């Protein structure tokens, strides 16, 4: 039983390390995506690419959250299995407590990532709205420019006609 417990603990430690690595990668990807989003927000002419980037960002973040939640659930199941097995060795109990703490930390990190994603989604929506407003303003300015050009052409025509009469 102790050998089995030790092997199980080692497996849990490996899973925990994998989760930590995945979390760090997720945080790095999130920071990088945030940087890319900031770069896109500086160029409002790229509205279409911004929309695809927003979609890609949301897909990537959702995928990462699902993976972390799955890993978290796996850890919770493992913890429950350890509880059910009523492990009595002191070493196993210490590992169990460590794993439970790590699980709680992962849960907090998942919550933080979800909050961050929500903020990024809101920011993306704000940028999309701004981009749409800028496009509308541009269209309005084009209409004004066309009107002014037509007025200018009419004035030139009127002046030429007056000049011809003189």
Automatic annotation (TrEMBL):
Coiled coil region boundaries: 58-165
GO cellular component: a single term: cytoplasm
Keyword Nucleotide-binding attached: no
GO molecular function, one term: dynein light intermediate chain binding
Segments crossing the lipid bilayer: none
Entry annotated with the keyword Coiled coil: yes
Keywords associated with the record: Coiled coil
Biological-process GO terms, alphabetical: cytoplasmic microtubule organization; cytoskeleton-dependent intracellular transport
Stored PANTHER family: HOOK PROTEINS, PROTEIN DAPLE
Protein name as annotated: DAPLE protein
Species of provenance: Piaya cayana (Common squirrel cuckoo)
The organism's taxonomic lineage, starting at the top: Eukaryota, Metazoa, Chordata, Craniata, Vertebrata
